[in-house]
Amino acid sequence: MSTIIASWTHKVSFSLLIVISYINPSFAQVKNVEIIEAIPERNEGKVTLRIKAYDQNNKPVRELEKENFNLTVCPPKTKPKTGKCQTLNPIDINWKIPLPEELPPAWVIVLLDFSGSMKQLDSSGEKTKLEGAIAAIRKFNQDLADKGENTKISIVPFGKGGKNCSGNKVTKKELDNFVLAGNRKVEQSLKKLENQLNNLCAATDIYEPLRQAIQFFGNSEDTRFNPRPNSNLSQPRRSIILLSDGYHSI
Q1: What are the sequence ranges of the domains in the chain?
Q2: Which pTM was predicted?
Q3: How far apart, in whole angstroms, are the C-alpha atoms of residue 155 and residue 133?
Q4: What's the half-sphere exposure (Cβ side, CA atoms, 13 Å) at 46?
Q5: In which element (H, E) is residue 146 found?
Q6: Domain 102-243 belongs to what topology?
Q7: Rounded Cα distance, 41 and 48, in Å
Q8: pLDDT averages per 10-residue partition of the chain, 250 residues
Q9: In whole angstroms, what is the distance from residue 232 CA to residue 212 CA?
Q10: Taking phi first (over 0 means left), then psi (-120 to 50 degrees means alpha), and beta for anything else, what does residue 138 get?
């Protein structure tokens, strides 16, 4: 997996620390290491980190071992006199590569362009742009199902309607239609969308669907996407994928 979880029990003031995780120089495959979440457990004197490593193409590096990492704790630049940087002893660190089912839940919104131009053939000349986009979603869904992670998908068509075209407006109701990746309902939804090919007539409105999707995920009252600060729950993974054949046209 590309996510590593590291915990350490060093007795320090967590509010005064900057944590740096870096890859062993001998492991040249990794270009960058990112700490994507830090969860302090003050009562136990422990901090849990979620870390991702990327290669030079910004793709996650998998199958890393704890020997590939070092973990350093430094005081923030605003308080340089609080101490020096310290590389932690491996004995104080519990490294773990989580199983797929142990990862935080993932929520993916796929915004699918349903404008009239999606009826046109793609560059291959063998299928329409809509068929190509749906084929990509179908493969994406299967890849997620094969990984066995807790990932839910919402496939949302969008397009600005007109006088003789109803279009596809994106609202909270359409966005909140998640199905577990690999579930047969995903395929049923894709087939339903394929059958609407000849009815495409809308204009391309990219900004409003994106705004609605971002606002939907950012709702602080929805604990599926934004757990309460003191819940000790990991931050869910949220993604928005937009599939379109062109630019905003209205």
Answers
A1: 3-98, 102-243
A2: 0.73
A3: 12
A4: 14
A5: helix 129-147
A6: Rossmann fold (3.40.50)
A7: 8
A8: 47 40 56 78 73 81 75 73 75 77 89 96 92 96 90 97 93 96 96 95 94 96 90 86 82
A9: 28
A10: alpha
